[in-house]
Amino acid sequence: FTIDGKETRCVGESIPAMSLLTGDWHLHAANGSHSVTTILSPSEKVIFEKHDATGHFAVTAQHEGLHRVCVHNNETSKRDVTITIKTALEVTDHASVAKKEHVEAIEAELDRMKKMAVHVYEEMLYMRTRNEAMQATNESTRGRLLWVEVVMMCAVLVMGLWQIQYLKRYFQVKKLI
Prior knowledge:
- The protein has a domain at 2-93: Sandwich (Jelly Rolls).
- With 177 residues, the protein is of the alpha+beta class.
- The strands form two sheets. It has a four-stranded antiparallel β-sheet, with no helix packed on it. Strands 2-7-4-5 form a four-stranded antiparallel β-sheet, with no helix packed on it.
- The longest helix is centred in the C-terminal third of the chain and has 74 residues, at 100-173.
- It contains two helices and eight strands; from the N terminus they run ββββββββαα.
């Protein structure tokens, strides 16, 4: 596009939060120091600013929304501007985009997730061992209770038979039968 002298033009791209916005700009027939390129977040906060006629930018969107790349022509004459914008899904050369601090942050997050997975696995093994111990206790208790019930039934039967015999003899002695 063409930009008039002392004019500012913006091109916007709506991107999700935590995604990468990269691109290049070039102002044709420029000295290099008479233009300002800025990137504005959805809240109008400047997240990138450069005073060159040509350059490359790579920023991570902190918030979802329309991110604008604005070029301000400080000269009085018209200038042609070329802007190329790519989002993280369109980036093909990830090696040039990835920075050491990004990789270290991802590695730290992966380490944290790995430790969490190991902890969950160990907790699962502990629960399985505990479940097996409880099942063994339940089985042995069930077996003991069966024998206690058999002995109790025998005792109740013996007591019942004894009472019948006792009452039968009592009534015979009293001559009620």
